[in-house]
Every structure is written in structure tokens, then in C-alpha cells.
DNA sequence: CTGTTAGCGCATTCAA
DNA sequence: TTGAATGCGCTAACAG
């Protein structure tokens, strides 16, 4: 890497002052056309690249977003994570921002951790992905200054964080309506991890919709556990042991649905003839299982993009108060129902 | 975020000099126990966090790894990417390094791009994930200084880059042997994207193994395309149109295998009775499809970890010449064969 | 529109 | 072991 080319070198070469060169590069409009062109020419000639550490130190900002992924290893979020991350990266690139990634496995993330990062100048803003637990900073008084932090996938508005996620209720309402229309009257809900906010929201959506339709008592709940496939098989075994089995099974995730269906099919039952199964998330594979899974597609890419936009809005003061941004999911009917 | 606490503040509070405070924090052993303890106490009291921009500028390093993901959106690498990224993050955390992420969709990455990042001080080293094309810097003479760049998943040693990947041949040899042992004598290989290095390597591994077993002429090739499921269905249609169909199908990825199997099952053929199908990659879902897919599991997490270790080794001069690090995959037999 | 002057916060010489 | 001084490379006031 030969040696480092600095503004001073460009100043020497062009005969201009360092500050002029700096301006020509960062604020081309505040400089004469002539010097701008000269500087640009010499800069590319010498292969000048502005040193980010120096820029950051001088400006006091970093132009980077820190992504804190909670259960990024757990099967829970992992498959969805890719889409979100892609959206985040794309939007960040569009806005000229960097993306820094850090994982927090199974540990709760506390506000003070995040504030520490912010303070250290690691990043200007933080994206919390799939963070169930958020411990607000105890020592922060009511100084209403809003932190540049956005939660993805979990509604943390009550903790003062703007959140971006899918309108989950809508998806489950669509599933219920579809199954009822297909003639189903007995339902099972395969639950996600106990205590999960998603779990809670989703189960309630199903429950409430069924109640509205006068079928509130026709729903049982099967314990799944984590959002993964193995938990789905466990729930399926419980299902098979039932004396009177529901005809329609609504799962808290595609992973659960796949594991569930695998076991059901293995037992000799037919899907959807004997049991209709619906998933949730919209994983790629759902369209290619046999039978293909009915599911609800989450707009992961869009969620990632929007989260970054929201962060930018907070950063430049266009958003000053916590809010919930909920995007619409897409319901797709396939062979499993 | 109240205001920024700096070394100067600690110096004031402790009555020590800034440089002493700095030393106490970064080189505790070069300072008396007394001052060390004093500084630590006051630092935590005031909530001091060292400013990374300043440290980076002063030291001339960044302690961060830049991850450049190539086709990270394409279905190709995406599912595997999660595992790798997790491994990278874990190891990076263990070594006290940051991870910065950037995507390069469908664009070839050139050495000069990477060198630019390095020069700008965005990162100290670079991890290329799934980079098929690598254009060496034309202007770099034979200055044998090795760049802190590692390629993951693609063997770029010929271009002078140390590479970390799976020993792909082994996996396909295992598949072939298994199928032959099961009595199969006619094979099809569902290919990945044309021109892909993986595609080439994998097909050859199959071809060569069959030749060794005297079955070299019993292999046909079905064009798949990208590593995704849709391409698998396309290949399956071609397969179904064949007059004389092979009894065993070896796919270039799990996605292809899933799409292929979906279509095959939909046509009324049975798996594995009529057609045996094997995938490659070890995606989670393969264990829960019906029938479950025989496949080869890539040690993605391990690959990520090792790549970071290798980067560290290059960085501190323990590795000075390009090499290929190939990890062993795991073959798993399931219902589809 | 351009040059001068000061820092940004820290690490690291060199003396003491 | 500690203190004083210098510089990392760039940006941003402030004059001119």
C-alpha cells in the first residue's frame, strides 16, 4: 500500500492551502470551478482517499449505524435476519452510511450498553434487531432528548424506542378467515417461545379473530417452544396424541410449521385433507415444500430499509417522539391449507 | 448523553497528566498500581469511554474487519451467509475486533476497491464472502507484501488471496459412494450457475468419482442456474421430459434439491423409490422436508471463525504467503436417498 | 473564494 | 514511574 496520501500532499501538489483542498473535496460548491477540478484531478492522480478516523474525530460523527442482533444465532430470527440486513445495508449505502454489526446472544441488551457505544463514537445510531428485553437506563432523567435508537421486530415504544415491524395481527386475521372459509371449525395454535412478545401478539390475534367469528372456544394451544423446526415436531407429537384433533393448525412461524408438517406427514395423515397447516414469516422454502406451505410473508427487506430511514429521520430531527411503524405483510395461500 | 468525558477530564479529577491517564488505561502494566486503580475508579465513576475515532487516528489502525458480501441477496449464498456471519462476529468479538458489513450485489469486486477501503482506514482487513470474481490491482508491482484480505467460500489463492472454504470434493465423493452403494447406476447432476467456480468443482468431483468407479458415462447434467429453488424446479421439468431417467439426482445446492424434489413429487413420482435426491449445504430445513433430504453440511460457523483467525494471523505476520484452508464437511444420509 | 488558525481526543515519543 | 510536547489527518470558524 505504498504510503498514505493526505490532504497535505494534495496541497503541496496543487499549491493550494490544505483547507481549500479539504473544502474542494467535501464542499465542492463552496469553491471555484477551477480549483475544484484541479483538486479532483490531482486527488485521483495520487489516489487520495480521505481518512475516516480523522474525519470522524474532527466532525464528531461517524456516519455509521450499529446493528445489534439479539438472537441472531437462535433459529428464531436467523432466516429473517438476512433479509433485514440486506435492506439495512442497501438503504445505508444509499444514504452514505456504514453498517457495523454486533451480536448479542441470549443476553439482554441494556440501554447503558448502547449508550456506551454511542459515547465511544462507535456509531451515531443503533438498530436493535429482535430485542425482546430492553432495560432503559436507570440514571437517565426525564431529559426528553430522544436517543438515535430504533427497534426492529419488537414493539419497544413503551420503552421510548421507535419501532419498525410487521403488522402481525393482520397476517393472523387473514389466516383465520381463510381457514374458516375453507370450512374449518376446530383450531390449534402452535406457540413460539414462552414469554415472547410475538408469541403473545400472534396468539391473541388468532384468539380474538376466532371470538369475533363466534369460534372463540374452538381453539387449543400447543406448546412449541423456540421458533425452530424441532419445536414444531414436538408440538406435532402432542397433536397426534390428542383424542379429538383440530383440523386446522396455525403456527407461530414457518419453522414450527415445517417441523409440524414433517411429523404429521410421517404419521400417515394427509395435509391438507386431514390437517391444514399455516405458517408465518414467508421463508423461501415454504413455496417448495410438499405440500407447499400457506404462510404470511414478512416484508423483511422493506423493514430493514425503513428502519434506516427512520434512524436518519431521528438523527436530523424530523422525528422527535417514539412511534410504531408497522408494515403490511402478505398472505399467500398454498397447498397446505 | 450528558456530555463527552475525555482523558482530560480524568486528568483533572485525578490530578494526573493526560498521558499518564492514557497509559493507565491502555497499558496498565506501565503504571504504578496506585495510579492504575485511581484512574480506573474515576473513569468508571465518570463513565469514561475511549473515543475510537481519536484512538484510531492516533494509532493508525481501526481494529475492524470489513466484510464484503457478494451475492448476499441472491438466493445463492444468503442462507449460508447467516452462519458465516455469526462465526465471524463471534471470533471478532473474541479478538476485540469490530465487524463492518457491506454488500456488493452482482458487481465484481476489484482489488483497487478493497485497497481503497484499506487506505481510507475503514478497516484493517477485509473478508470477501462468496466472491467469484476478483480483479487483482493492475498497478501493484511485485511488492510481495501480502494484503490483509481473505476469501471465504471461493478459492482465490491463484489471485494471491488466502482462502477459507469447505473441501467440496469430499462431500460429493461421499454422496456418490453412498448412491452407488444403494444400487444406483444412472446419475444426473443439477448444476448451479454457469461459470461458477463451485459449479465447476462440484461437477468434476462427481464426474471423477463416478469415473473411478467405472460409471463415468452414466452421468448427465441438468442445467439448474442460480442456486435457488426455482432453478431446481426448472431442472426437474427437464428431468421429467427425459426418455430415460437417471435414478439418482445430485444437486449443486439444497435449494436446487428442494425445488427439484417439489416438482418431482408433484408429478407423482416417489422419492427415493423412483428418484433419489441429494442436496448440498446443510440448510436447516433439509432435515424436515418430506422426505428429509440427504445432504452435506457445511461448517459455516467454523468457516467464519477460522477466516477471522486467519486474518489475524496475516495481520501479525504469522502468515505471509497465500494458502487454502479447507474444512471438512459432514455427510448426512436421510430419507431422500 | 481562499488562507490562517485552532482544535477534535488520544497515543507516544522524549525528558525528567 | 510520570509529565511535557508533538502529531495523527481533517474540519470549521474566522479573517482577508
From TrEMBL, chains A, B:
Query: Could you tell me the keywords of this UniProt record?
Result: DNA-binding, Transcription, Transcription regulation
Gene Ontology molecular function, alphabetical: DNA-binding transcription factor activity; transcription cis-regulatory region binding
Q: Which residues form the HTH lacI-type domain?
A: 5-59
Keyword Cell inner membrane set for record: no
Q: Which InterPro entries match?
A: HTH_LacI, LacI/GalR-like_sensor, Lambda_DNA-bd_dom_sf, Peripla_BP_I, TonB_box_CS
Query: What is the designated name of this protein?
Result: LacI family transcriptional regulator
Amino acid at each position: 500500500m505504498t504510503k498514505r496520501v493526505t490532504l497535505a500532499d494534495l496541497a503541496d501538489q496543487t499549491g493550494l492551502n490544505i483547507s481549500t483542498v479539504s473544502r474542494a473535496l467535501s464542499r465542492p460548491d463552496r469553491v471555484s470551478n477551477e480549483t475544484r477540478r484541479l483538486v479532483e484531478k490531482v486527488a485521483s492522480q495520487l489516489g487520495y482517499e480521505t481518512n475516516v478516523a480523522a474525519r470522524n474525530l474532527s466532525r464528531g460523527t461517524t456516519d455509521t449505524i450499529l446493528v445489534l442482533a439479539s438472537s441472531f444465532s437462535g433459529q428464531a430470527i436467523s432466516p429473517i435476519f438476512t433479509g433485514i440486513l440486506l435492506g439495512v445495508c442497501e438503504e445505508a449505502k444509499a444514504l452514505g452510511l456504514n453498517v457495523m454489526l454486533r451480536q448479542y446472544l441470549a443476553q439482554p441488551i441494556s440501554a447503558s450498553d448502547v449508550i456506551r457505544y454511542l459515547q465511544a463514537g462507535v456509531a451515531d445510531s443503533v438498530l436493535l434487531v429482535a430485542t425482546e428485553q430492553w432495560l432503559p437506563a436507570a440514571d437517565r432523567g426525564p431529559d426528553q432528548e430522544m436517543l438515535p435508537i430504533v427497534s426492529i421486530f419488537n414493539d419497544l415504544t413503551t420503552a421510548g424506542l421507535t419501532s419498525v415491524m410487521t403488522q402481525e395481527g393482520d397476517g393472523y386475521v387473514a389466516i383465520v378467515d381463510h381457514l374458516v372459509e375453507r370450512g374449518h371449525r376446530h383450531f390449534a395454535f402452535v406457540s413460539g417461545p414462552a414469554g415472547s412478545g410475538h408469541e403473545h401478539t400472534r396468539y391473541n390475534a388468532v384468539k380474538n379473530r376466532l371470538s369475533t367469528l363466534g369460534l372463540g372456544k374452538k381453539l387449543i394451544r400447543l406448546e412449541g417452544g423456540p421458533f425452530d423446526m424441532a419445536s414444531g415436531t414436538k408440538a406435532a407429537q402432542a397433536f397426534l396424541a390428542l383424542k379429538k384433533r383440530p383440523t386446522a393448525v396455525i403456527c407461530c412461524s414457518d419453522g414450527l410449521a415445517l417441523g409440524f408438517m414433517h411429523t404429521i406427514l410421517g404419521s400417515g395423515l394427509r395435509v391438507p385433507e386431514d390437517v391444514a397447516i399455516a405458517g408465518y414469516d414467508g421463508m423461501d422454502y415454504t413455496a417448495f415444500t410438499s405440500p407447499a406451505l400457506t404462510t404470511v410473508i414478512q416484508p423483511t427487506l422493506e423493514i430493514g430499509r425503513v428502519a434506516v430511514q427512520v434512524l436518519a429521520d431521528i438523527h436530523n430531527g424530523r422525528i422527535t417522539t417514539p412511534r410504531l411503524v408497522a408494515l403490511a405483510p402478505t398472505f399467500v395461500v398454498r397447498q397446505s391449507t
